[in-house]
Design goal:
The two termini are 42 Å apart. Residues 1-20 have low confidence and may be disordered. By secondary structure, this protein is mainly alpha-helical. The chain has one domain. Helix content is 84%, strand content 0%. The longest helix has 50 residues, at 169-218. Helix 6 (136-147) runs antiparallel to helix 7 (150-165).
Length: 259
C-alpha cells in the first residue's frame, strides 16, 4: 500500500502542468478580447484600429471570464467530490482504514475514468501527504478551504469530530453523500431552469450586434452618417455603453438567481 502511494504521490509533479494551463487560459482570454475589441471598432466606428482603445478594458473582461470558469470548475469539482466520498465510504466499509481508503478511492476512480480529473489529483496529493505523516483531517480541511467547496468544508468538520469521538466513519460518509446528493439534485433542477434563461440572455445580447452586422453587410453606406460625423460617433458611443451595461446587468441577474 505504501509503495503504491509513493509511486502515485508528489504534488509538485502537478504544479507545472497546472501553471501551463493557467498561462494558456490567460493567453486565450486576451486573444478573445482582442477579437472582441476589433469587432467593436468595426461595427460601431467603421474602424478596426479603434478597437485598440478598448484593449484597456481587458482586465475587466478577464476577471469576469475567470469568474465564470471558476464557477463551472467548482460545480464540476463538487460532483467529483461526491464520487470520491462514495468510493472512500465503500473502501472503509470493505475494511480499509480511512487513511488507506484515500488511496483505494483513487485506484477505484482511476478504473472508472480514463484521465485523472481534479478530485483524483487531490486524492493523490492527500495520499502523498499521509505518507509524510500528515493527518487526514488536516488534509481534508486544507482541500476544503483551498477549493472553497461548502460541502467539503462541512464534511471536513464532521469527519474531524467523528474521528475525535470514535464515531462510525462509514455512516458519516454515507450520510454526507446523501445530503450532498439531495442538494445536487436541487441544483441540477435549478440549472435546467436557468439554462433557458441563459440562452435567452445570450440571444438578446447578440441581437443589437447582429442588427448592426446585417445593416453593414446588407446596406453598405446606410450607417455612414453615424460613422463619419462627431454627432454620429457620440451616438454610437452612447449605444455601445448602453449595450455593454445591458449585457452586464443581464449577467448579474442570472448570477443572483443561481445563488
Amino acid at each position: 500500500m505504501r509503495g503504491r502511494g509513493r509511486r502515485h504521490g508528489g504534488g509538485q509533479a502537478q504544479a507545472e502542468p497546472e501553471g501551463r494551463r493557467s498561462r494558456g487560459s490567460t493567453v486565450r482570454i486576451a486573444l478573445e478580447w482582442m477579437a472582441v475589441s476589433a469587432a467593436i471598432g468595426w461595427l460601431f466606428y467603421d474602424c478596426w484600429p479603434a478597437g485598440i482603445l478598448f484593449l484597456a478594458a481587458e482586465p475587466i473582461y478577464a476577471k469576469e471570464r475567470r469568474r465564470g470558469i471558476e464557477r463551472k470548475g467548482r460545480r464540476r469539482l463538487a460532483g467529483q467530490f461526491v464520487e470520491a466520498l462514495q468510493a472512500m465510504a465503500a473502501a472503509v466499509r470493505a475494511g480499509y482504514s480511512a487513511e488507506n481508503a484515500v488511496q483505494e478511492a483513487w485506484r477505484e476512480l482511476k478504473i472508472l475514468h480514463q484521465e485523472e480529473n481534479g478530485m483524483m489529483q487531490e486524492l493523490r496529493q492527500m495520499a502523498s501527504g499521509l505518507q509524510m505523516n500528515q493527518t487526514l483531517e488536516g488534509l481534508l480541511e486544507d482541500f476544503a478551504e483551498r477549493e472553497g467547496l461548502e460541502d467539503a468544508v462541512s464534511f471536513a468538520e464532521v469527519f474531524r469530530e467523528g474521528k475525535r469521538s470514535g464515531g462510525n466513519l462509514v455512516q458519516i460518509m454515507e450520510d454526507t453523500v446523501n445530503v450532498i446528493e439531495e442538494k445536487e439534485a436541487v441544483s441540477r433542477e435549478v440549472e435546467v431552469l436557468l439554462a433557458g434563461r441563459r440562452y435567452e440572455q445570450r440571444v438578446m445580447a447578440a441581437v443589437p450586434a447582429g442588427m448592426l452586422l446585417y445593416l453593414r453587410l446588407g446596406s453598405p453606406g446606410y450607417l455612414d452618417s453615424l460613422y463619419h460625423s462627431l454627432a454620429g460617433i457620440c451616438v454610437m458611443t452612447l449605444a455601445l455603453a448602453l449595450y455593454a451595461a445591458g449585457i452586464c446587468w443581464g449577467g448579474r441577474i442570472l448570477e443572483a438567481e443561481e445563488i
